[in-house]
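Kindly draft a polypeptide, keeping tokens residue-aligned:

***
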Amino acid sequence: MRGMPLLSMSTSDTVMNTSYLTVVPQPPLADYIAGIWIQQAGVVASHADNSPTRVVPTGVAEMTFQFGDPMWELGMGAMPRSTFNGQKTRFKEYRATGTTGLLIVRFKPWAAAAFLPQPLHELEDLNVDLATLVDGELVDRLSDALLHAGFDSARIALVEGFLLTLLRTYNARLDPVARRAVHHIVDAKGTLRIGHLSEHLGLGLRQFQQRFRAGVGLTPKGFSSIVRFQSALADSASYQDTYYDQSHFIHASRRLVGVTPTALQALRRASALGCHFNRPAHFYNTVYLRPDYDDSVRQSALERRES
């Protein structure tokens, strides 16, 4: 197993008596993973104090590891201790049941396919027990070890070792077309015409759509709509850059997150988890969408994002 992660490449935060640690993984994982987030919170005092957290689509897949009391997905029940969270096309809501301990791995939009044997698009809008997707015994050993690890650095090292094992096991070749397409879509704030993009990449529309969906887990149109909304949410006063008018922006918000942009901000402040993970544009920035950034620039961007 690898050594401890570089904690100099980390940031921390405290919101509503809930602590967070953000770590940028070391190579080679840094080529695939945007960051590793740890959240810890004390026991919920009462049901009234435990507002559900609405997690919005961000265009990235995740793995979630629990080392506290079980989190509940509203309408579905208790979450498995180790979960693969496929790309979301609509919001999901979660509620803590006691002491919260979460470690979340956020993949770069084109990279989660390297760690799984299943096609990503088959996991769209699903939270799946990770033990049913990869080596179940390996997942169970990791889950047990995380429960008994005493420090965040130890938990991160355990998860990094697990991810390296998956990477060596599956070693899927990532599609450069998907990665290039993501860059173009993000640079244009989700406003590119998909037909024009496929022509630019030298592919027929159907072939491009199939390759993008296999590599990212969403259709190009679906991914673009999320990027477009996140870009507008980052600066709602400048939504005109991405939407024809405010009514189109509000319609997109209701479709993706179930409420208006103004109501989403209120929901974001209602829970500690929401305060941290649903900050506007928290996931769409140059921290992971620009592969040519060196570590010092990437860390500087992370620090600005957490301020």
